[in-house]
Amino acid sequence: EVQLVESGGGWVQPGGSLRLSCAASGFTFDDYAMSWVRQVPGEGPEWVSGTAAGYHATYYADSVKGRFTISRDNAKNTLSLEMNNLKPEDTAVYYCTRRKWPVFDSWGQGTQVTVSS
User: What is the DSSP letter of 59?
Assistant: First the structure.
């Protein structure tokens, strides 16, 4: 059974930082592209960042480029998202997802990130 478990969310003031982590199990982690997707209640999901399987290439939405850094540790089956210079518009539930092109075929339970003063 595929399991993705996020941690690290919370409340932070604008300009602050948070690091999200995702522990993956139940599949061969390094065979899959992985992504972070966020969602605000009442709105559709927004892809934030992704990392490819074999070559570990990384990709970012324009809204977070230069502020967020995605990384993966295939030895530990973990995916991370370092978020710096957070803005109120980054407030959302953040989901760790497995990418099986073209869909995100597995999702974690999500972790809340709130940016406010």
Answer: E
Kindly compute the dihedral angle of the four CA atoms of residues 98, 109, 28, 82, in this order, to the nearest 10 degrees: 70
User: pLDDT tens, 34-70?
Assistant: 999 999 999 999 999 999 986 679 999 999 999 999 9
Nearest to 68 by CA among 81, 78, 59: 81
Q: Which of 3, 6, 2 lies closest to 22 in space, CA to CA? A: 6
| CA 20 to each of CA 24, 28, 54: distance values in angstroms, whole numbers, following the listed order | 13, 21, 22
Cβ-based neighbour number of residue 25 at 10 Å: 11
Residue 78 to residues 16, 20, 86, 116, Cα–Cα distance (Å): 23, 10, 22, 28
pLDDT in tens, 2-26: 999 999 999 999 999 999 999 999 9
Say which amino acid occupies 70.
I
Nearest alpha-carbon partner for 63 in 43, 79, 83: 83
